[in-house]
Amino acid sequence: MKNFTYQAGTKIIFGKNQVNNLIDEVLCFSDRILITYGKGSVIKSGLLDKVKTALNEKGAFYKELSGILPNPRLSSVKEGIKICRENDLGFILALGGGSVIDASKAMAAGVLYEGDPWDFYLRKAAPDKALPLGCALTLAATGSEMNGSTVVSNDETQEKLATGNDCLRPKVSMLDPTYTFTVNKWQSAAGTVDIMSHIFEQYFTPDPGTDIQDGIAESILKTCIKYGPVVLQDPENYEARANLMWASSLALNGLTGTGKMMGDWATHMIEHEVSAIYDLTHGAGLAILFPYWMQFVLNDKTAFKFARLGKNVFGIEGSDDLEIAKATIDAIRSFFNSLDMPSSLSQVDISDEHFKVMGEKACKFGPIGYFKRLNHEMVTQILKMAK
Amino acid sequence: MKNFTYQAGTKIIFGKNQVNNLIDEVLCFSDRILITYGKGSVIKSGLLDKVKTALNEKGAFYKELSGILPNPRLSSVKEGIKICRENDLGFILALGGGSVIDASKAMAAGVLYEGDPWDFYLRKAAPDKALPLGCALTLAATGSEMNGSTVVSNDETQEKLATGNDCLRPKVSMLDPTYTFTVNKWQSAAGTVDIMSHIFEQYFTPDPGTDIQDGIAESILKTCIKYGPVVLQDPENYEARANLMWASSLALNGLTGTGKMMGDWATHMIEHEVSAIYDLTHGAGLAILFPYWMQFVLNDKTAFKFARLGKNVFGIEGSDDLEIAKATIDAIRSFFNSLDMPSSLSQVDISDEHFKVMGEKACKFGPIGYFKRLNHEMVTQILKMAK
Predict the structure, then answer these.
(1) Contacts of B211 in chain A (CB under 8 A)
(2) In terms of CA atoms, which chain B residue is nearest residue A2?
(3) For chain B, give me the number of helices (H) and strands (E)?
(4) How high is the pLDDT of residue B40?
């Protein structure tokens, strides 16, 4: 087990009827707030109204920024920064899923930075100062509600990049599973795949002796496999939505990655290149790519970890690690298929036109991946396998 | 899943050679520090010297309080409070295991309270203000390094009581597994039992739909079952010590209790009555009492949870929950025995002399337990079974 520092200080307020508790926490930081959201599902669900009512009752000042899209755009980030500066706002409250939260993190750091916020993503500047932010989560998927990471797309350059800093971790996050009842089948399935992918990225590493982390990772995967199908059939099943929601936060708050040198993250970086061009739902892209990444990196050295996963999560028996590993990858692909997720890029109308440039862009900062290092040709090969 | 609030904000600094990083964090809070420790193992291991050297290098002022015993005494707490007040100290740094940390928490709150610190434990006052505190952990057991709970013994009244508050959560905890290499077999085994007991107290509740929490709980138990025996045979096995150390923190930082009304905690309260009189090692007391508590509360209604545990942790198969439950309790007792822990009170020279008064004292605030409510007669009965 490697040395590590771990502090996941986000205050989680979980459950029904918690808006007033959320606002009480927000007001500990500032009474001048930017509320950010997306296309209006938070209007339909009544969440925005409840938040505004609570803020009005406490005499707080707020501005709104709506229209933040999935794969959030740098243009929205710049708009949010402008509103914060013009109105001297001191807290950003994101209502939505990972896209709204990620864009809000970029705003929070961008307000205190004089240059272009894209600099953070190009690694030209560190987002090491930020306004405090919080969220009311409406989609169980990205884990952004309990970590300091942010992924944003540059609409001009067709790039989708990630950055992060501990100061971007939300101070408080409200997780009310009832606000995910209206999430449709496609997004629910993609969210489940996203949660599982975050576990995979931290599970598949060569570090020895991380038994407790890997055990926790497996238990989160089992939760996804149990409840993912339930919410597709029974979208208002509170227990299922609640388990998936808490799974989303625990899968990417740093817990399962403790004691490891780093995560792998190659598949995420490849998927970002695909969805930067095609605006594909992130989880759907991961459902396509992950099994092919697994096939590509499977060898005598890596089989042990796939075999562990297969035995502990899918109950696959056997004595040959490589055989169990292959059966495990099949089981993962079958599970994603059972959620009606696509299993090839052609199924979502993506041709091989940009595969070469996607491979190059994925490796723009050098080879990617930690479980197995991948150069741009290998990335292109994985994309071809996934065609 | 019940509504919950969760914030485990302790900064964990895990691994080898981290003393300077610990001291850097401490000095963010205050440069006037009380160092607390026990009988001197931190002198032998060199930890105390390293801490003092780091403090001296940074020009910090410190005082020391040594001699804090297992089942820490109120008298030590009062001494610590006096030193803090006389020297205007602003941070308490505990070097040791749960006893030193728990006593230090009582000091931290006591410094800012005008009355007797025992009031906190008698529920006459809430320990809701405290000096910041931190620790360098030397024993994997109580989980005190990442939570706001404290257990102290009153030397005058032979009472051992618990209290807690979020403000008592250490700001920073250094977990260096190498400092547990010298922990002897008895204490190592008792520590493993203690960690498992914390999981049991939160696992055995009647709350439905807490699948993710229970899965994480099971993975922590499996870690204990795997590595507990290893450290008895091979005390300097870093991976085993590291997994147990991280298990101790995760078992009682609130994580596995989220979404539940509360934990059970009856067995801990019974054990506190035994060790208040007999000064028994806490984990050894739990190893004796837990299997009897399990036998006592097992019935048609509670069998499902024992059966889940048996299937998922001990791989016990079958179709009848009650049968699996019985086999599970046997497996737990066998595991504790394999660690050379006692399995009856007579084995540690405790007679039935005080059983009745122990039962009454355990229920002094009313019936105990949540999985099954126990009155004082039931507690006495469990003690008789454990004789």
Answers:
(1) 223, 226-227, 239, 243
(2) B15
(3) 15, 8
(4) 87
